[in-house]
């Protein structure tokens, strides 16, 4: 009987290893840029075509490689960073395992050009599917250029599962952003399909954040800093009033390496408790500097998950540091004793005579008797409750504007709408054959508007109205990268945007149904929602945009409705395909049956 266990060929072993390290084009960008940083580069240029499917090129001005080093770099587990197991616990570089380049070469066609400063000629390598096809001397500039072509060309199953170009493009952008945030002293540029879409000059940390997120973020950030025996923590958190409901920028870095750490995220959110609502997220850029020996980064192929030796202690330090910074910069409300309307605090005088407090009581006072004037009785102040109640009724029941088109005019509500009531300016109550129906007015309007906006997008029937003074919309680098994927649908709704360059856009027109004076906020919210959902299929993107806009423009809670408006909401709600639930599954309608009402009354 023959043996059945055998060694895998190197080409197959490399493809298997590539599945752990190289998951998509953004993984290639991450590994190549980190190698450039380790090589001492100061200027790094990334060139991509077709979101990295066709071409990824990273060009740097680092120290370059000799012909032998260039060839050895593509052997499995070949590295200049580790010589013994002890070196794993003293890592200060980005890469160290020697897996990245052989993994990339296993699933693509690679061209390498590299020259050291002291060499007259550089080296050219051509590798395809782990097989060396050519190595020769060439004339080239100092530094290294690595081009990766046709990623996953020999693993069609992996290539088939790549997402849309816009999604892969966003992932590449995210990787560049994470690297750029820990290396503000380096210059980065990104060229997509022969057009430069990002250029980051050398800057300080705060200026680098502004380069990526827009200048408006500078007024939102609060410095944090703490230095202890366990290490140093520094960076920025946002003021509570700038917390976002979705797509908030949240970054942790340790020793210049991006990490994901839910445990430390909990420390930050704990510091923000009572300052923001539970569905809001603070923005933060937090950096740790710790002894490499107290850190294990060798627990995940992508090195984004790390293990700290003193996690609990660092958690406490981080939470206290963030909370202290929020208080120090007046993010936490404090008592102001310098206000003009503050109560007068008497100064203690030890020589003044001490008197017991006296309470004047009228033993003849009878609250059931009609009030009469008596000179010795202190009269209660005239509060004017009747006038206050009248003004309150006028405030909560103003002559409301019609919020739905096609409504009837000048018809007495008492005759036309005898069984529609608004409860606490939140619910619409209406009588039905089997009992009492309760309708959430805000969610009902979301359902109605969602169907309307979705139809406009799909049939491209949105009506745009030009704005008198175009609003300048400044987007972050990631938002600008995501905008092209939803631009057609925004235009179908009625938005008109013109590109001003440098991630700025002018809002020239808005949908005629929108009455908001700040359309830029609506557009940014829809971009954020698209980024959060990560939709790829066109129909899913259209639905997410329609839902996002419906949420932003639906009638809010606390809005008083006329009977006419309530009737139209109910009728349009039940004309939709699914009136009982919002598009994201929230309940709109609830029925209280006659039997349940009778049971509660007995």
Q: Order of strands side by side in the largest beta sheet?
A: 5-4-3-6-2-1-7-8
- How does the major sheet shape up? 8 strands, mixed
Number of structurally distinct domains: 3
Mean pLDDT: 78
Q: CATH superfamily name of the largest domain?
A: MutL, C-terminal domain, regulatory subdomain
Q: Helix tally? A: 17
Quote the CATH topology of the largest domain: Ribosomal Protein S8, Chain: A, domain 1
Number of strands: 22
In which range does the helix fraction lie?
25-40%
* Gyration radius over CA: 33 Å
| Beta-strand content | 15-25%
Spans with pLDDT under 50 lasting ≥5 residues?
375-381, 388-418
Name the CATH architecture of the largest domain. 2-Layer Sandwich
InterPro entries: DNA_mismatch_repair_CS, DNA_mismatch_repair_MutL, DNA_mismatch_S5_2-like, HATPase_C_sf, MutL/Mlh/PMS, MutL/Mlh/Pms-like, MutL_C, MutL_C_dimsub
GO molecular function, one term: ATP-dependent DNA damage sensor activity
Domain DNA mismatch repair protein S5: 209-327
Pfam families: DNA_mis_repair (PF01119), HATPase_c_3 (PF13589), MutL_C (PF08676)
Give a nutshell description of this structure.
The chain has 602 residues and is of the alpha+beta class. It has 17 helices and 22 strands. About 6% of the residues have low confidence.
What report would you give on this structure?
The chain is an alpha+beta fold. The chain has 3 domains: 10-202, Heat Shock Protein 90; 211-328, 2-Layer Sandwich (Ribosomal Protein S5, domain 2), CATH 3.30.230; 397-602, 2-Layer Sandwich (Ribosomal Protein S8, Chain: A, domain 1), CATH 3.30.1370.100. It contains 17 helices and 22 strands. The protein has helices at residues 10-21, 25-38, 67-72, 100-106, 156-160, 165-182, 205-213, 262-271, 311-328, 385-396, 413-416, 441-459, 477-493, 519-533, 538-553, 563-573, 594-601; strands at residues 43-49, 55-60, 109-115, 122-128, 131-138, 143-149, 187-192, 195-200, 221-228, 231-238, 250-254, 257-259, 284-289, 295-296, 307-308, 420-423, 427-432, 435-440, 464-474, 496-501, 504-511, 589-593. A hairpin with a 5-residue loop joins β1 (43-49) and β2. α2 (25-38) packs parallel to α6 and α12 (441-459) packs across α16. The termini are far apart.
